[in-house]
């Protein structure tokens, strides 16, 4: 099974189920549907209601990206595998994780085309982020994934799967792929992707003193970088940690 097929299988396994927790439930029931996406027929997925909801949601995400990226949005569509419906404390939210190139990286790409040269990507030139919207698809909050490996000389090039963090954890697990920007450029097409890395990160849902919803990346238990390449194994590792006054401690060996 190739890597794309593995990511697809993992995402369908995680997203195709309702993951219920003390205060958070994660599923893929969109636009008022009572079925997860993998439980729906093709005809049910492309009803006018489902299509309109998806198109509106995608446009809102693209607007959010443009607002933080000098007005520049991705040129390709957003991946379906990394989106979810959340029910947190009785309130509906919609989460969509995406990857895109920074405005600076896009300017550099255009310069390379004009100059007919090929240079390594710039650190942080590839951005992975998660955008949270309310039931009416109004923006609630967002977060850019932090990859401190190699002194932040990283390029995030994919959000592979999104799912619940597990029982008792008000948060999401997001699997991303990335590479180090100081590595050698691939000389052959078949070498592209050989140096890509994958890990799964915890994004906590919380509210500030004013009640505003926030997403906070919490690497204390899983680490960053880590070796958890999909959500199920990251969820098992997370279950071996205990949150003591907002500080993770290990309660058993991994």
List key phrases describing it.
23% helix, four-stranded antiparallel sheet, 12 strands, alpha+beta, 5 helices, disordered N terminus, six-stranded antiparallel sheet, 254 residues
In words, what does this structure look like?
With 254 residues, the protein is of the alpha+beta class. It has one domain (47-245). It has 5 helices and 12 strands. The chain has helices spanning 3-15, 42-45, 48-68, 103-115, 231-238, and strands at 19-20, 24-27, 83-88, 91-101, 126-134, 139-144, 154-164, 171-180, 197-207, 213-218, 241-244, 247-250. The strands form 3 sheets. Strands 1-2-3-4-5-6 form a 6-stranded antiparallel beta sheet. A hairpin with a 5-residue loop joins strand 9 (197-207) and strand 10 (213-218). The longest helix is centred in the N-terminal third of the chain and has 21 residues, at 48-68. Residues 1-22 have low confidence and may be disordered.
How does the SSE layout of this entry go?
Blueprint: H1 3-15, E1 19-20, E2 24-27, H2 42-45, H3 48-68, E3 83-88, E4 91-101, H4 103-115, E5 126-134, E6 139-144, E7 154-164, E8 171-180, E9 197-207, E10 213-218, H5 231-238, E11 241-244, E12 247-250
Antiparallel strand pairs: 1-2, 2-3, 3-4, 4-5, 5-6, 7-8, 8-9, 9-10, 11-12
